[in-house]
Amino acid sequence: MLPLFGDEHRRRRTINLGGSQSVTSQAAILEQARALRLKREVLRRREESALKIQSWWRGTLEARSVRHYMRQLFLQDMTSLMGLRCLVFIGQDDDLLRQWSAAMSADDHLLFGGAAGQDKAHWVTLLCRVSVLLIKSVAKEPSSHSALTHLQVLCKLLDPSYGARVLGLSDFDLPRVLTQYVMQYDLYQNIRSSIEAIAIDSKDDPAIPYLVKLVYLPFSNVPPLTELFTQYMHALAIHILTIPLLPYRMPLRSLSQFSAKLPLAYLQALSSCTTDIVMQTSISAQINIIANLLHFTPPRYAILPLPTLTAYIQLLRALLSALPVHALDPPLPDSKSPTWEEDSDVDDEHVPGGPAIPRAALPVLDARTRKKLQTLPSGAHLNTLLKLTHQHPQLLPDMVALLVTLHIVWPTAKDEVLGTLLLYGGGGLVREIYRDQVRPTPLGRDDNIVTIMDPSLQDWWPPLLLLTELYTHTLRTMGDDEFFSNSRTLLTLNELVPFSRTLFNIAFTLYWRDEHLRLQDTHVPGLSLRWTDVRERLTKCLQAIHARDSRRPFMPPNHWSVGTQIDMSSFIDAAVHEEQQTDEVSGPLTTAKGRQTYFSHLFPRLGILSNIPFAIPFETRVHIFRLFVQTDMTKRGFDQFSRFNRVEVSVRRGHIAQDGYDKLSGVNLRAQIAITFIDQFGEPEAGIDGGGVFKEFFTSLCKEVFDTDRGLWLETKKNEIYPNPHSYASEAHSLSWYRFIGRILGKALYDGILVEVAFAGFFLAKWLDKQSFLDDLASLDPDLYQGLVFLKNYTGNVEDLSLNFTVATEEFGVTKAVDLIPNGSNVAVTRENRLQYICLVSHYRLSTQIKLQSEAFFEGLSEMIDPKWLRMFNQQELQILLGGANSPIDFGDLRQHTQYGGLYGDEDPTIRAFWKVMESFDQEQRRAFLRFVTSCSRPPLLGFKQLTPNFAIRDAGDDQHRLPTASTCVNLLKLPRYTNERVLREKLLQAISSGAGFDLS
Fold first, then answer.
1. Which helix or strand (DSSP H or E) is residue 809 part of?
2. Which of 406, 423, 516, 609 is the most exposed place for a label (fewest CB within 10 A)?
3. For the segment 383-438, what is each residue's pLDDT rounded down to a tens digit?
4. In angstroms, rounded to a whole number, what is the distance separating the alpha carbons of residues 334 and 528?
5. pTM given for the model
6. Is 969 a catalytic residue?
7. Can you spell out the DSSP letters for 306-365?
């Protein structure tokens, strides 16, 4: 077909008449539309950005042009008002600022003339802005020559007398206006930056005197104690006093001027912003404030008014409270980080289950800062502050709070602080604090115990805690004679009664309610001290007071009783249940203090029994102890009266100690031990050991191993034994014997066997994980004790005694000196450190010399007895638990709990004659009889009702020549039916004094 109308070159349109759909979906169409919209948006933004760039560039070009124009105007007449305006308009141009300040510093009339002319308002406003530009320029490069010129101009402008003198005016307000303006624009921040940019030892830098002057000039332009003055003081504290080593950066002349001009007499202006200062500063900055205050303030103590002193002490306390423990004595830069828990009273270890408490990193302090901080706890400084409290008694509460906070944050300075306080004024500070601040305290009242954590009572805690620490510290170096003499350095016994009751009520509440109060995670209101640490401090003091009361009772009846606060029956059941749960609890705690706090938190009854056991009656604790043993025995599958798992051992009578050591060292002593004695002919003795033969063996064993002739033990003058401190006793072989003896004594406690041996109190204290101090030394070395008491109370010059920090020891006739502290031979004993010397000497003689021996002994003891079981008792009670009460034997009680067998009954003529003979015995004969029938000469702790099994008498025939015999394993007396009382007496005395074994009959 021929093309028509000339469209032969056009492409023919394809028309689909089949009705098929387009391949483009609806989603694709929407996506295509969205892409087009985004493309248009991108194009629009590009156009807007291009317009902005063009506008900025045109503005920049215009600004350059205007700034160039202004610069030309300034250079034409820089000292005029127009030149000043141009300088302000141009802004931070260091070159123009240098030229302007150079011109102004050369002619004071040019600088101040405009402020007195008709354009005064404009001139002042422009000078304010230029001043800010100058100080910022200085901060960028403080050691430059231009910075020095800027500083000279600024000092002239801010000096209230300089401009007035130049213009001859009596009233010139330019410095005041300028000061207010530059302070608003960070004057002190820029000064701080400038000072810190200059090397610390560059005191000859010419900028330093001017920078120092700019620090104190603002206070010349504002009346004291106004709102503006407070703002300036606040800025001074957080920006200037936080500069490290501030005094060491100044030349001597500037330092003198700064010290004289610093407005320390108005520190009370900071009272309203103390909290803000603490919140706005870091740990290092807070330490720097303390160090700088200690440099400038102490020389003025005597002339400072009471409000200033109060504010100063409160500021120091607030800063110290914000610091972590040991922040003031952190590790040296080249030393390894120490484990502070070993030295600190404050337990930083976290109790599992509570929120983690982050530890603040300790700062690294310069040696000069450390040295200045040593001023704070020094005796001279503290004595000066204490004198101020006598001039101003109103200061004492704040001073007490500061002292408490100081030794909380700085534990290593605690002894120095407490020692100074105890020596001050002859030692009367203890009573003064008690009578003025502790006696009226509402804390720990019997009728209001549960309110101790009320925040409204926070002011009562510092004096109570300080007195507690002072009293505990005092008792460390005080013998019983001085204690009971009502020494003027201590409370009277009448005062001690309510004080100790207050401590007791608080401590008991903190242990009893630990589960509910979350003591580990909360702090005492107003103090950086956790409640667990408060509890520990109170507990130490209570234990020391109770120890004195145990040796020589002076407290009223039921003083240490919790009264009706707890039901003893339910307490016993709960304590046993808690003990059963302890093995199921394990925590990541590594320190002994951490573990003890943890267990006190989980098990409050065990916490009471381990820390303040005297809150529970002794008989109840003995009962709990036996229940603990029974529970442990059941858990381990042992039965006291079963023959299952019994260990059989043969022992030669002539070698009891050696055979016992050889054959029992590797045996589980919780099992029943069946002893067979071998006589001198090598034949086994008659008798089947049901427990009594072992008790006889045990008694003989103890007699041998505790014999002082063996070299392991020494005796005090009271016939109480303790480990031999001789080097021989610390050799491996001797230590293994101590370990064995510890296991044997653990067996005695475990089985309830009484041991007739008396241990020295200071040695028993180690069983309870307690330290021994001067009061324990009297029993060991009376002469040394008297010498140390003389030293403590010596009123002359202590250095005349020519003592140093060494102690003399003698072995094999050779005397040598042992240093008590590093380089102790070159450290003289003085009035200030004599208490430390007394403590160290006592500790060496009572603990250090027998450390290895005691540890070996206690290692063996701990294999049998859980140490926390022993902590339920004090030294005197532990001795009773070991050997029974050294009290008269009551045969009336014995008769009441006696059982009869065979033909005997209580009314039998022989039995009546027997008890009549018993009543005629003296105490020595009674003890011999008791030993004969039970293997122990002392009665059971809780009376003969606790003798297991009960004492029994069985007839042994009617042979009048037969001696009475005994089966100590079952506490049985086999008594022939004597018809004559005289014969009965003679035969009984012969039997109990023969000392023979089981072959006697």
1. strand 806-811
2. 516
3. 999 999 989 999 999 999 999 999 899 998 888 898 888 888 776 788 888 988 99
4. 29
5. 0.80
6. yes
7. HHHHHHHHHHHHHHHHTSPTTTTSPPPTTSPPP-GGGT-SS--PPPTTSPP-PPPPPPP-
